[in-house]
Amino acid sequence: MSRYQTSRRVLIDDAQPVRYDADDSAASETLSNDDEGSLKLRPSEGNVTEDQEPFFGVKVRRKASLHRDYRGDYLDVPSRPYLMKILEKQGDKIIFFADKVLKFTGSGKMKKRILLITDFAIYIVDPETDALKRRIALAAVDKICLSELSDNFFAIIVPTEYDLLLASTRKSEIVTVLVEATKSTSEYELEVFFSNR
């Protein structure tokens, strides 16, 4: 049991997509024990700014997500005519992110979907029927909810419509892209909320 009570330091690269202006700086987080004997993540001490702490030093990170290069378009959208047709019909041209995700319905069913993030909207496309299922304007997104655990789940909160619960192994990149996209297209910064409820 004593192996869980030691402190460890984890080095995290501040990897950003190529299209964004970012520093090549590193950050660190520290795991520590609380009074109940469980491990909690606390922001590291020292000369580390809040910008360098991934997810504000609150979220536990998986090892695979620490040293990953962001590509953005994992589906090669220009080679898929049905996706290009959907984007052209809506008037979007710049694609920040494209990948396959799992969408969870209100009844708890999982459905495979394609997630596209452009400079103006989020698209959910059914890969089986090649049909657009949902388009959410970035201005309509209120916040993104994440748990404090190392899982793949995240929720996109849209107050004017229903919320969107998704799972992806590239969650860190999706959250980063959404925050940067809303920051560049509007005057507000998208809130990232952490809760285990």
UniProtKB/TrEMBL annotation:
Domain (TH1) ranges: 59-197
GO molecular function, one term: cytoskeletal motor activity
A Pfam family assignment: Myosin_TH1
Region annotation (Disordered) ranges: 16-50
A GO CC term attached to the entry: myosin complex
Name the record gives this protein: TH1 domain-containing protein
Biological source species: Escallonia herrerae
